[in-house]
Specification:
With about 400 residues, the protein is an alpha/beta fold. The chain contains 19 helices and 8 strands. The chain has a 6-stranded parallel β-sheet with strand order 3-4-5-6-7-8. A two-stranded antiparallel sheet has the order 1-2. Helix 16 links the parallel strand 6 and strand 7. Helix 18 runs parallel beside helix 19. The longest helix is centred in the middle third of the chain and has 26 residues. The chain is globular, with a radius of gyration of 23 Å.
Length: about 400
């Protein structure tokens, strides 16, 4: 984008921000019309009759702290369902006043007798253990030498011989009949920490890079076993639901793979691409089925590979533009490209300017949802969301 275009966007943005401040800090907008037009826009983001750029920033429960002015307690938010519900209700009460909608999910606590026993995760197959640290769960390295990795993969292969017995807790069969009679569906599996991030969590960032360079046979075995384990876990959980292979009621797959940027294209194609292809070809083999990826990092070097894999939903880091993504992956619905820090810092003029930039790049071919290029973080305010909505209504109209 040229300096002159950027300056024009900033000047236009300042006008809307000035109106917002004159309006008591709430951007001028017809909320009923916005949400009606947004519903049409979201129904087909590529359509010639799409009235405006659809909104993909629908906040998250992580935003409750700053909005409600309360001290953060992430562990309680994630593990105390009643506490989570109470905060989300308070947040939504405020959201109704500012943006005209209750926008975060209000999940009712699940009675203990209605909960399925938890199956083991993919990282358990590779002997990983999540650790709570700070405000989130982390997956520390399991092994860090080729010799130890080889031994780990030997054990993984043994587990894959009877994966059902490994994945399902001992009380599963006892609870299964009762829960199915109650009409409570068992868990499914259609998304995963992506291949590169997962492998680097198990083996380390630099270790994986050196492994691919120095011991490609072992790296290929690691990649193959990740694919087999993902497909095996999905198959077990599908069978527990009574779904037939290839006829599942739930199709499509979504990856979250922030560490993809750590590999160059040759390494990515060698290690990650076969895993993507195996999973997509199993669960997203029909036209229109989701083949999506979130990677809030620099992904420019991998766009040709992701296009070859048929990616149709993309959420990448803010250093990429809509124009760059569209050039390399013309068939993907793009969710982006507002910088998450612009939003969570509530930089009003920059928020509108980034909206204007993305409108211009999306206008010709559409297929873009206005979203953050990465996570929506605490600090992102409802008043800033309303400002984005006002910018869409004023400047982001297609027809």
């Amino acid at each position: 984008m040229s300096v002159h275009v950027r300056e024009a966007h900033l000047k236009t943005a300042q006008k809307l921000v000035d109106e917002t401040r004159a309006n008591g800090g709430l951007a001028p907008i017809d909320l009923d019309k916005f949400w009606a037009d947004d519903a049409v826009a979201r129904s087909d983001t590529w359509s010639e009759t799409c009235p405006q750029m659809p909104l993909g920033i629908l906040m998250s429960h992580e935003c409750v702290w700053a909005e409600l002015g309360i001290e953060e307690d992430w562990y309680k938010l994630l593990h105390d369902q009643a506490f989570n519900l109470e905060l989300c209700k308070r947040y939504n009460d405020k959201a109704e006043q500012i943006v005209g909608r209750r926008i975060v999910r209000e999940v009712q606590p699940t009675p203990p007798e209605h909960r399925w026993p938890e199956p083991k995760q993919l990282f358990h197959i590779f002997e990983g253990q999540e650790v709570w640290e700070g405000w989130s769960y982390w997956l520390p390295e399991v092994v860090n030498t080729p010799k130890d990795l080889e031994a780990l993969l030997d054990r993984v292969e043994k587990r894959l011989e009877d994966l059902r017995s490994f994945l399902l807790p001992h009380e599963w069969d006892e609870q299964k009949d009762r829960l199915q009679k109650l009409g409570i569906p068992s868990p499914t599996y259609r998304g995963q920490r992506g291949p590169v991030t997962f492998a680097m969590s198990i083996y380390g960032v630099e270790n994986l890079i050196y492994l691919i360079m120095d011991e490609p046979d072992l790296a290929k075995r690691f990649s193959d076993l990740i694919a087999r384990a993902i497909l095996g876990r999905a198959r077990v959980l599908d069978e527990e639901r009574g779904w037939e292979p290839g006829k599942e009621a739930q199709r499509g797959w979504y990856w979250c793979d922030d560490n993809s940027c750590m590999l160059n294209p040759e390494m990515y194609d060698f290690f990650a691409k076969p895993i993507h292809r195996a999973v997509f070809d199993t669960y997203s083999s029909n036209p229109g089925e989701l083949r999506g990826q979130h990677s809030d990092s620099d992904m420019a070097q991998h766009l040709p590979t992701l296009n070859d894999l048929g990616l149709n939903s993309a959420n990448f880091g803010p250093n990429l533009t809509i124009a760059q993504i569209r050039e390399k992956i013309p068939g993907a619905e793009i969710h982006g490209q507002m910088a998450p820090f612009t939003f969570c810092r509530n930089e009003e003029v920059n928020i509108v300017a980034e909206c204007l930039r993305d409108f211009e790049m999306a206008r010709e071919k559409r297929g873009v949802v206005l979203a953050t290029a990465g996570s929506i973080n605490n600090g992102s305010r409802l008043s800033s969301l309303r400002l984005i909505m006002a910018a869409i209504q004023r400047y982001g109209q297609y027809c």
